[in-house]
Queue: 3 jobs
Job 1
Amino acid sequence: MKKCEYGVSANTRRLLIKYLLMTKMAIVLVLFFSSQSFAHSYGQGISLKLDKVQLKKVLKSIEDQGNFRFVYRDKLLKGSQPVSIDVNNASLTEVLDKIFEHTSLSYRRLSNQLVVIVGDKTTENQLAAAAIPVTGKIANEKGEPLAGVSVVEKGTNNGVTTKADGSFSIDVSSANAMLVFSYVGYKNLEVPANQPGKLQGLVLQQDATNLNEVVMIGYGTAKKSDLTGSVSIVKGDKLNDKPTPNITQALEGKVPGVDVSVNNNAPGAGAKVRVRGLGSINANIDPLYVVDGVIGVDGNTINPGDIASLEVLKDASSTAIFGARGSNGVILITTKRGRAGATRISYDGNVNEAQLYRHLPNLDANEFVQIYNLSFANGQKFSANAANPNGTVQAPPKALNHINYPKLFDANDKPLYNTNWEKETYKPAFSHNHQLSFQGGSEKTLFSVSLGYLDQNGIMVNSAFKRYSARFTMDNDINKWLKIGGAISVIKSQQKLVSDNNGGLNVPRMVTEEASILPIKYPDGTWAGNYDIAGLEGGPNPIQIAQNRYTLNNIFQTLGNTYLLFHITKDLEFKSDFGYNLNWQKNNFFSANDLPHLSQDQGGVANIRTNTSNFWQSENYLTYNKEFKKGNKLTALLGASWQRTVTETDFVEAQNFIDNFFQFNNLGAGSLRSSSTSGGNTRTLNSFYGRIFYSLQNKYLFTATGRYDGSSVFGANHKYGVFPSLGVAWRVTEEDFMKNRPSFLNDLKIRASYGGVGNQEIGVGRSQRQIAAGTTVIGNNNTSVLYHDYMGNADLKWETSYQADGGIELGLFHNRVTLNVDYYNRTTKDLLLQTPIPYSAGLNQNNVYINIGSVRNTGLELNLTTTNIQTKDLTWTTTFLFASNKNKILKLNNGNADIFPGPNFLGETNILRVGEAIGSFYGRYRVGTWSDKEATEAATHNLKPGDRKYLYNADGSEKYGIIGRSNPKWTGTFNSSLNFKNWDFSFDIRFVQGVNTAATFKHSSEDRQTIANSLKTVLNAWTPTNQNTMISQVRNYAYAQDSKFDTWWVEDGSFIRGQNFILGYTLPSKLLDRAHISRLRFYLSVQNLFISTKYTGYDPEVDTYNTGYGSNANFSQNLDFFSYPRPRVWNAGVNLNF
Amino acid sequence: MKQYKYFIIWCAVVLLAATSCKKFLDEKLTTVITPSSSLSSLKVAQALTTSAYSNLSAAMLGGQPSSYGGNTYDLMEFLTGKATSDLGQTNYTVYQSLAYNNTSFYFDTWWQFLYKGIGYCNQAIQTLPGITAAGLTDSIKTNMLAEVRTLRALYYFHLVRMYGAVPKVTTVPTDIGSLKIPRTPAKAIYDSIIIPDLLMAEKSTLPWRDASGRVSMGVVESILADVYLTYAGAAINGGNTAYAESAKRSLAVINSNQYSLFPNYTDMNDPANKNKGEFIFQVQYSVTANVNNPLTPLTIPNYSGISAYSDEYGSVIPTKEFVASFTAGDKRAQERQFFFTSYPGAKPPNSTVTFKGPYLYKWFYPAVATTPKSDLNYTLYRYADVLLMYAEAQNRTGTADAQAYAGVNAIRARAQLTPVAGLSQTAFEQEVWSQRYFELCFENKMWFDMVRTRKVRNDITKNWDDFVGHKNVFGATYAEKNLLFPVPKKETDVNPNLLPNNTGF
């Protein structure tokens, strides 16, 4: 038998590989798998030849064949007639139908393996009288009743399963009987049957390290112990332990190797998620989000409250099933679904208040006047040159006094106002979040409904985010061989964004740069602003901007799927899943006609941008599952998929409005129709994929995965690519020679995997030569033009990450200590590099996508969880997560010339150079200021004492070099959870080390004066008596020294953050039972309780270039040009289950 | 076994649905045209022709990315040593002090947009002959090609004057592997592209003037006059033949009787005069089309509050020494002619803002108090320039003739200066140079004159210094290396065949 099956599977494997390479494979597959002969030869057949044997023995014989286990009350079988049977390779149904033919017995399959045998009512009642009845009730640690728990009298086959409310009743054979409770994901529990009181409140302990835990893998599930790849799991409750608007933020600090940067603190803003470093330069490197099988969902739109569990697939063995889209890691999301039994209602809600907790002080009113006047006084020195050696006496355009500014100064020329703009702009903000869900169903139909409402307000005045979400799932067993189901979720959200326009005079910038001598409004009710002071750059005050310039980002999303699942044979399934994601975004922007520098020149600006994206996918796959004797097991998967995304964009803008009344509601009211554009594109994917998992004696595990992917975005010469991977694992502790291992060693698994996974995330049309249409002015009118826009590259293909991963999983002291360590080496080759081409080519786009270059990420990930104390009342566990990543560019374009990818700020900010990391900062070296003694040397550089001093090359030019890194050397999270009786206390402390953050705002708020307010640090500027400083002598703006990205801006961005502290109390179930409440927990939490960092800006984890919704530019990480400060959030919440 | 039946039916449905769209992975672009598309109409031909103009603005008045107030225009003035700035971000000190190198900005912006202009022209020159369409007669097509070739010549003319030897690109590149084109000497670029292109355009039937600002015969001849004058100059040393060829073209413009000097300098600040009168060729801007002249706010004193502009830059300011060096009584140096030192504030009304020195009035738009949108064109060639080109070229072929004197004296007369007569060849030439110096100042002409003639007027001594060795008012001394710009490092990085760079870089 065994031999035969090996033969078949080896043969099948060959066939699979062969068919994988055929484009029309799916047709062949269907015929192949559906053929009767195949099903039979492959069937999990039972062969028996027994003559007049007791029923119990028959069942034992079937159990011996290794595929099934029976649960029944012993007495049920007593007295049944002996049976004879002779079958060969028969199905379980055939066999059981035959042997129960003349009995009152019937059976029910609980799982593929477990079969419960029951009698009819009469028999059961008769039996009940003869046995010792025992009843009880079981729940999990949270008091949620557990249905379907197996309850077995120890040492017998006598067993039942619990009902939906967790209750059970079983008749045991003796007063000394022990009951064994077991349930997937929980530790087994053994209790004596003879203690009726205790049985009513049984609690099964969740087993986080349970090796039988079932985890999602792409297109299927696997037991955790069977995994050969690197997969991290986050449960929904852990994910939602702090109030966050989306899963990207929720993931922060939860998974080693998943670096999450919450760069923007505007309400509803997404975070940047990077799995195992930066694997590409120009292609998108966001991980792939798969929500209940729907591939490529925007991680920021999903309501985290709907999530039951989330898995991060990191290595090639896990991600290769997603082929061309797997190289940046895959995040599989499983939403909450129905469960059999009484409908469970749960409510989770929280209210919170956010507040500013770090400060960036600027000059107060008196200091502003002092620095302003000093700057002009110093102007004479800096205006001196060869033709004008004594300089020119400098006077402000209008001196700051009450004659020029009667509204701002009193008769003694003291400022009338001293406004703290930070305090006026960042106010405590109240938010609340509610989630209501229903989960229920019968044996045949399961359903869930969940409703969510989030109302988040930001500390920046007028910034807000609202989301309404509804989700419905249904799963129905139509009959033995067909199951249907699906999910649909509808999400509507609106973000009110007031912190746009990075680099411009936006709200956060004006908080620092607005002169503190100004009020918000004058007594007559008119706005005050820098524009009231002659010679100032004239930015409106932050409150005026926040009220009169904003974007409403509306998103409406319908996401879901429907599936048909055919149980073709007991072992073979076919699933056909149709998924869709209809996403509609409409961004309404308004900027009033009285905001200088922003929209006054245009007479007001309003625009509307819509973006619709319609996605569908058809996933069709066969799964074959077979367990043999002695822990040999085979799972095979073969599938085909088609996907299509159609996007459309429109943009209309009008300017010059007679009144701000209309905002964006009537673009027709603007006299200038400044822009109307539209665009759209279609992209498609066609894939064939397969996976074979084999477990040899439960000791040696093999997973071979492959995907053959075709994408429309690639060149005509390279539409398809192959992405194979292999994973192997050795469960050392299952070995015979380990039988005598020390008792503290529970589990040891060693894993290794290797494979090549792709990235296709570039824009449409990159492979084709393009002629574009535009306009230019001829004789007062816009006139159409056609020009050569883009070079095209018909050879364009995937970039491929070749990743090797080695891992060790260790369980010690009854798994109270678990350690997971992974080392990876991921080399991305054939980078989809936006390669600069010579300008002399004369194309509009002076770059072309070429598969050239290579980058390597190597890193170590560690997850150490220890249960330090475990007693009846007290449990204390700690988790330490650690991840290090080293990124290195191995090769760029031909000749390996440096590439400056931007974003530029007064010149280059970032560099791509072979041998260095992606995200390296590039700039000058500031070493101090020139002292009076160095006047002669300073003059050779055209500078004077008091000017900033930089390093120079031998030829006299300024030295530029790599002056920092924007990605951390290592990150870690320390988590501690303490449960004492009904109390729970936990905290997360996050470490991000070996990274720089560039305080680029120093350019305008420290390196120059007299056109805006400055940081308080200019009080430490160079003066004849303070020559040992990094800050140049203040002078009026006309003589500002050239200011560019330098080492003084690039600060140490390492930090230790008190991420989240939670204190919870769960009411005792005794109190709750009467109210039919199964669980009620109250908690208080605080996010960002503290931060320890040397960074002088608001927060070292920042990126002000990605203020737009979902923007994730690769190179602007840790560039801070006036950020939306991170708030501390005090939160109170409740979890309630009925 | 009915499950098989349904299962197979379902599979068939799925397969049919998925494979019914033939060529599932073919990419069809809908917002851009791929070269395989067949486009052939009069309008397509017009659009290709017009594309030749679309980089004029980006090259001549191109904003410098990541600089506040930086513009390609700034570079050409800073380098003369006659300009300074209110804005550190223009990096003006680097250029005044001649401390620039191959990574300094502006150089790459100029290079980029001039070549982009050439690329668009090449696409048109390559595609136009193949288009046959109703209404597209041979003579229309010839004139279209004349427009495009004239502009290609203009882009190359700027390139060779700035960088010397440059890559010669005359076709649209299709092969990624063959983009690293080495440099061709400047003379060969003149001989094989600039001059032939213009001579071909000269044979067309383009009208002498074009009210919409397109290339006319006047433009072709003016550029040819400039090209031959420069060819005759120090860079190529084309000799007297080139001077004669130059004089022939400027005379043709004069004799066309299509152009005349504006009576007042401020007529140049009036948008009603766009493409009219003295103006021969301008970069087109239009408030109607919402494409505004960027030079106006750049030349208003920094945050002076005299306009409706939120941003008043003061990017380029004449040095006091330069303004002081005008001949006494020269109208051009008087208030609100070419310069101004005070102006009514835009708020509160009726107050006058006095600047710290003279600022450029030449690019001032008189309506700035009420609108932050300048409707002025930016002039590349005007009649005064042609008159002076004729005077200079003709004088070199013998002695200055009556037309040469008439031209110079017309320009002097407008400046309220007395006429000149009977000058020696050298004295007449220096008089022409002086008039170019004063008349065309801050029109991006002076730098090209400096490298063409290898002479610089010394604002203090009022002598014509040799270029090499001249010391500007900022104390920097011009050297041989300053005659050509460095080829930008960004370009040599991706095309190492351009190395070695120009001497000194």
Note: Chain A touches chain B through 110 residues (CB under 8 Å).
Job 2
Amino acid sequence: MMAGYALMLPVLTPIVAACVVLLHDGPRWRRGVMLGTSIFLVAVATWLLIIADGGAYRVYRLGDWPVPIGIVLVLDRLSAAMLLLSAIVGVLGAWRASDGTDRAAPHFHTLYLLQLAGLNGAFLAGDLFNLFVFFELLLIASYALVVYGSTTPRLRAGVHYVVLNLAGSSLFLVAIGVLYGVAGSLNLADLAVRIAAAPASDTALLRSGALLLLVVFALKAAAAPLSFWLPGAYTAAAPAVAALFAIMTKVGVYAIIRTGTLLFGSEAGAVANVYAPWLTGAAVATIAVGALAAFGATSVVRMVAALLVVSVGTMLCAVALFTEQALAAALFYLVHSTLAAAAMFLVAGMVPTRESTRVTTGTLFTIGALAIAGVPPLAGFLGKALILQATPPDARGLWIWSAVLGSSALAVIALARVGMASFWEVATVQELHDEAPIRTRPSSGYPAGGALLVIILLTVFAGPAGDYSRRTAQQLVTENGYVQAVLSTQGGR
Amino acid sequence: MIMLAVVLLPLLGSVIAIILRRKSPTLLAWSVAMPVISATVLLILQRPQGPEWMVRYAAWEWLPQLGLEFALRVDGLSWLFGMLILGIGLLILLYARYYMPADRSFARLLALLGVFMTAMLGLVMSDNLLLLVVFWEATSVSSFLLIGFKTYDGTARDGARLALTVTATGGLALLGGVLLLGHIAGSFSLGAVLGAGDQIRASPLYRPALILVLLGAFTKSAQFPFYFWLPRAMAAPTPVSAYLHSATMVKAGVFLLARLFPALSGTSDWTMIVGTVGAVTMLYGAYYALWQHDLKGLLAYSTISHLGLITLLFGFATPMAVAAAVFHVVNHAMFKASLFMAAGIIEQEVGTRDMRLLNGLYKFMPLTGTLAIIAAGAMAGVPLLNGFISKEMFFAEALTSNALGVRWLEPVAATIAGALGVAYSLRFIMEVFFNDEGRAHPKEPHEPPMFMRLPGGVLALACLAIGIAPALFITAPLVPAVSAVLQAEAPVFDLALWHGVNAPLLMTIVALVIGAVLFRQRDRLMAWRDRLPTVEFADTFLVTLQWSSIAAERMTRRMENGSLQRYVALLLGAALVVGVSPHLGVPMTWPDAGTLPDVASATVFVLLILSVIGTVRTIDTPVTALVSASVVGLLVSIIFARFAAPDLALTQLLVELVTILLVLLALPHLPAMPKILRSRSRAVRDALLAGGTGVGTSLLAWAVLTRPPVTMSGYYLEQALPKGGGRNVVNVILVDFRGFDTFGEVAVLGVAALGVAVVLQGWRSGPVARRAQRNRLAERHPLMLTVLAQALLPLALLMSAFVLLRGHDLPGGGFAAALLTAVALVVRSMVPASGAPVPRTRFALPRVIAIGLLVSAGTGAGSLLWGAPFLTSAYDYIVIPLIGKVPLSSSLVFDLGVYATVVAAVLLMLERFGALTTAEEPAPDSDAPPLLDEPMPVAVLERSS
Amino acid sequence: MNLLVAVVIGVLMGCGVLLLLRARIFPVLLGIMLVGYAVNLFLLASGRLGNTAPPIITEGGGPYADPLPQALVLTAIVIGFGMLALLVAIALKARQATGTDHVDGAEPREQGR
């Protein structure tokens, strides 16, 4: 397989880069390596996306051990898309961090790069335990990044964030234990086969294991009622870090989609679609909680965090349907909402600003607000429309429709309120933005502008993007495609 | 392509405006007007012709999956509206040039106006309903920005917020409705939807779709009860009010009624809802217009009333009514825009818009006055003016129609509305221009510059022209528009000034008379009105908005109350619920308890349980609790050993050691604080959760344990030696089969160490620490330990080397070895001789971490050179004296990397934690109580969470 | 035997959770440690327990214990250690910054006394 080692690059490059950063200090050098690597990752991800869009799954057997003995990395359209997305967000965050955030304490660049490595690993992992390991890698990096700079609110949020996620990791291990104990494998494809073939006596246990996994992923994705940790952590973190974290919740969503289609998909026999009933309720609840928080939010950062929660709920609404159309919609919206959240965290980091930059920031805010609220003309609107269109007009559909449309309305109203307070009635800016850092250089607007530019591109080229997500969804709903691809790869030894 | 140009040219204008923002206003105005003019020319060229008004289309793909096309059409309706938008737009640009102060804000206004024009043109020309929604919301947003143009003005901000809240929400309702229509019709293309009228009306989703769409239309066109945003929108600069809030944007709602007329109309639902809302709005607006003192306020309410009239006409749903509606849209746009401009002029020249302060302006500005009189006449429906003709048509329809079920209702309502219209039109003219009571004006009034008067004049004359010779001027554009609305041949209507004496004419006369009377009696009426309680709906709405956002904030804080315990409880609770749920209803098959445990393990288990409980019991005395916790760890490692996992036992033991060490070093900085008594409910909740998770885990474990083994370990056991070159299968798995996990795991440890370094960097510890430090140095190191430590070090190092090398065949491996080394170094350094509790390493530990990782990665990547995948191992045996035959495999090098990283990581952690106790100046929290082994007597209640 | 192991795991988990739900950082630390033990045992148990030989190949040895779970547990132990260390560090710093070791970084409102 020509592109075999290419699957390693997204994981290996940042790790190596992180080590290189450690070897020679000198802020310029370190910053350069960080930026260079993150840009390089975009290139790699693009390449992988092109490869993946060929339609064939790429399987990489580490250590050249036969499946399912060794660990495999698997590249399909979904993981490729996620890789590209995280690479782009990575660049934005790194760019923003380069205006001084990374000077607050040592090792920022190392932590940042390892966080990227963890993310990419999680998106590529074809093995349940390996997924766990990369979850831990991205988590521990994020722990260090959340408290980075050690301001009191960050530390306070950090303790919560860490303890909660440690509990989550323990749950993850228990779930792995159950699944391995019952199905006797860790390789996702192999697991899928074994789960589908499991005897009826194992059904209940398997369901327990599956749902424990769902809880773990829901925690990462910040789905209600496990969403309350997010605003604290994200509002406390530095803007650059928060921007990067916009992708973190999507790791949870990704894991839900992956396991929900592959392990517990329609072909999983007794445990088929075990996620769905729980997920819909959680999704709607998430939207409600988030919308309420957004409606009441008193500062831009809080609002963005709340709207991030809303967006997670919105895409989970679609994911919970597990139909091709819905998954396509969810993916399209996922990409947009991640970029929008990242952009808005960057903008939020800029308010309050001096008169001189107010118009610029205000414009950025307006565009970003349109994006994150998901109202026309930007791609968020398209995503929501796709989701609603994919929702059958039945009882459940009614819930989803009212949740999505209602939350959008609330978001618009709330954003208008906070936006006015931040840019129109300048008097109250100070009291409104206690969380946001005051001093910003005009230059710090560029990353935000870049993010918005990407969103606009996504809007203009919605057609191709939509096509891709449709193809991705097709790939996802034909589970045995993945299974066949992985299990049929012949091991060298 | 031309259509696209028509839509986008105004946008180009706004770009130009931004670029030239520093240039002179006149140049600016012209450079923005140019694209608009060219767009107008292009649109004129596109005018529908031919017998059946050929429709022009243009489409570009946007998001096919959604059925969203960038599709434009020019038919009679969109052409007429397009001309209104562009034509009046041009006049507005000219007017604004003189109205606006000549500063930077003018450029902003022009830019926003350009954006709005594009949005509005797109709205009326879009051939795809979703595209229409896109432009629809775009108009809402640009209108928001234009109303709030004077950002410093509180009323402007409120007006903007109000407008956005109402219209944007309505837009989302419209989106819902459109999606439903598309769902029914199977396409969002306008043609398809209009064609599927019967299908739509038959569908069970018709009613929700209709209501959602109407919500959109009514909010936009300020229909009752959503009218209240419009008067507040008057806080916008007058050109904006004239353009958006009388001539164009507010017409978008009625435009939508027209556009979807064939698809939605023709049901009793339609007639009832549209008709009623229209009638109520018409009367309500007219009534309130009567009482306004602010000129713009009067015009705003009159606009509401006229929009209601148009809506009512659509409610009648007869071809003639539609014709009248479209006609009135045009007329209203003309005279109302003209009147707004007049109001703006007056405000500029006199310095107030309050009719109570104005009088006798005619002698100061006769021209302006005359034009205003013409326009106001049209508004009142006076003969010889366009308003008269459409009013007549309206009266005629009102007489014939029976939409609302009661025969006399419409005519009466229509007449009353007409009368009120006459009254407030009279007021506008008389009180401003005549009945001179010699009141002093804030400014000495005089005529405005000619070009400021021109736009209003043009419109007024147009009113006159259409009013006198309608057939000549308006029939041509009107007929295709009407047929476009009806999607059928337009009815034959002869627009003429004189139809002879008929019922409508009588109604007009009645209206005129009553109106005049009302005006005469105005003082008495005012007095009566002032006694009535007045309620400003807009204010209540704004207050509610404010209040509810505060409430939302409170509720959020209630839920998201920053209590870790709640979040953890939620997580565990969720896990418990979903974990248990599958087993409900499933008959529980109790597996047999299995073999009795041998005495040894039994005792271990019992001891374990006891020490666990001990830990919980003594939790308030940290050191004791820590000790018993470490006992637990010890016993766990014994259990590992018992169940044939020597590697785990070894590792667990070492990790335990280091962990306890870390916590010990940290303890002095976690002084015991007052104990927290939990409320009863909390205690119960915690107990339940703990019990639940405990029992749940037990059952899970038991269920798994008692299942027949399903595993893939066979392969590992068989192939470890031949292919992995190691007897210790666990180690082979770690460094070879699943080396990638280990790679990641080591990275995690490295990050952890770096994280610790970052977090504890620049730590300044308080007196507590200093005390603890002194104690440590003073008492904690009996000679015995010192000697032992000294002796241990080399031994330990040798040992660890051994463990590392033999790890592939015997329990051990890089990780265990590394811990061994680290521990040895630390123990060694614990002795007073070496001063600090942790060695001051000579080389930078982070670098070692990096190097270790690079070595591991390097060995992994090395295999790439042979074309084999990452981490592919190769090995051979070599003999080393004393140690014997060891497999020198690439995985050993990999393990070396692991070793280096782990040693460095652990040492780095210990170094940082050790550094805690080397004290510098006191920290802010120097009042923290010292660490005691007894819990402090004082206690506080936990807040409920 | 199995039953007893299961019980032990349960006790560890239960008590760990109990401590995890406390308000002070120190109990939470120990709680996490206990939960960690429980999870590791659980993971080991997922490979079934019995009177088997350690998975170290010897001529004619066996039956061997399932090596895979052991490897997983080993990884889990290491990761758990790293996490705990970082948590302790963050907790210390938070303790210093907020002046309290309440996990919410603020003393609960004084009530009922």
Note: The longest strand of chain A covers residues 58-61.
Job 3
Amino acid sequence: MDETFGALRVGTDLVPVEHVAESVARFGDRYIGRVYTAHEVSCCQGTPSVVAAGLAARFAAKEATIKVLRPVGHQPDWRSIEIRRDPAGWCAVHLTDGAAEMAREQGISNLAVSFTHEAGMAAAVVVAMCDDPSTTTRRSNSDGG
Amino acid sequence: MEAEIRGILSEHARLPVDMGDLDNEADLYQAGMTSHASVSVMLALEDAFDIEFPESMLRKSTFESVSAISGALSSLVGAPAE
């Protein structure tokens, strides 16, 4: 008897906080408005360095999500990948529009994210289940696995 | 146009190599441009050429080389007003 297991996908990214701070300083609201949602901006308040660290962590999470979505050609709008903070403190990936469509097409569900920032760098990891038949792992009871 | 594009790339693409060492077809992502740097490049191009990249052009391929950027800008700058 065969069992079909959904494949796991993992994406990761690393962003220097200074790069985000410089983009905020150089392009201001145009940069923020093209990349981040209003909710994400509301979660990143404080001194410029605190804002930049929060935005850098969220950018890393968005890019890690894109690595999970594996877009061919067209990139989803950065804002269609939203990092939502739960009132209890943890964060989740919420997809809309083009990103949500890509996820549906590939059978991607149950995205989980973790990110951090320390020593001037922001890092994120995104894990997702994928039911796409072309990427699932088939394992037989007879293969000893 | 290419000289201006190269200037913007030198300032915003954060490449570990000199733009003078890259020809117009060189893959900028392979040369070290990150996704975040490509956002800054896009915004700087919009400032310099007074255009806005539509969502349909937000592909990695749009910003992957000097030639690709030049082609994208030509289609936007030369596009008839709606």
Note: The interface with chain A takes residues 14, 34-37, 39-40, 43-44, 46, 55-56, 58-61 of chain B (CB under 8 Å).
